[in-house]
UniProtKB/TrEMBL annotation:
Domain Glycosyltransferase N-terminal per the UniProt entry, residue ranges: 7-103
Domain of life: Eukaryota
Protein's name according to its UniProt entry: Glycosyltransferase N-terminal domain-containing protein
InterPro entries reported in the protein's UniProt record: Glyco_transf_N
Residues that span the membrane, as ranges: none
Protein family (similarity comment): Belongs to the UDP-glycosyltransferase family.
One GO MF term attached to the UniProt entry: quercetin 7-O-glucosyltransferase activity
Amino acid sequence: MEKPHAICIPYPAQGHINPMMKLAILLHFKGFHISFVNTHYNHKRLLRSRGPSTLDGLPDFRFYSIPDGLPPSDVDTTQSIPALFESLPNHSLEPLCELITNLNGGEDSDVPPVTCIISDGCMSFTLSAADRFGLPEVLFWTPSACGLLGYTHYRELVQRGYIPLKDMSDMANGYLETSLDWIPGMNNIRLWDLPSFIRTTDINDILFTYLMTEVENLPRGATIVLNTFDALEQDSVNPLIAINPQTFTIGPLHLMQQHIHDDRLKNIGSNLSKED
């Protein structure tokens, strides 16, 4: 019987790559074949930071890369987040589909067929690839459950007139202390407590609008997984389950990874910057 084969696609920033790597290692420990997909840019950064053998992987834990659509650069830093938000959906989908095609039967394919996609929640354009190949997709959201729940109410904040800010004086005049009593699981939360992308005077701000639209894809995921646990955030998790009943807490991943002892994985890491 062939192993299940998961393609893991993190959003290309350090705070998203790390938890996706932990999840991939846990799935590998449970018997999955893993194809971990970085952008070309971050693939090169990993080689520079961890050495030329860091992406050699294992026969059943392999690394691949796809373009992000941004101009080539050798600068060793995280790329512009707004630029990535605009570029990734337009330039990474077709290369991802080509990769899946090659893994599923290309001349050089020596891996089991892809059985699922695990994508960062901020990379929901990958749902189109899942639809094209008839694959289930897991959306892995890396922020806290309460942070994700805040994102899901961005559009209603606009509809109710809270956002955008009238002008930047609202940042300091007490407006952000406004209490909100209508968000399930967040009783009497303040505007100040919500994820900070709401603090804009521009209704078309790319960071705000991108996240507002990304969370609207939550119902499309076959499963939603969160790096938290029920005892910590049950009040925030329950409203997310109402959006997609297949929502599960799987954290804390860093604690579970500590119980995996496999010398074969010791060279697999995700730090984009050189370690001391």
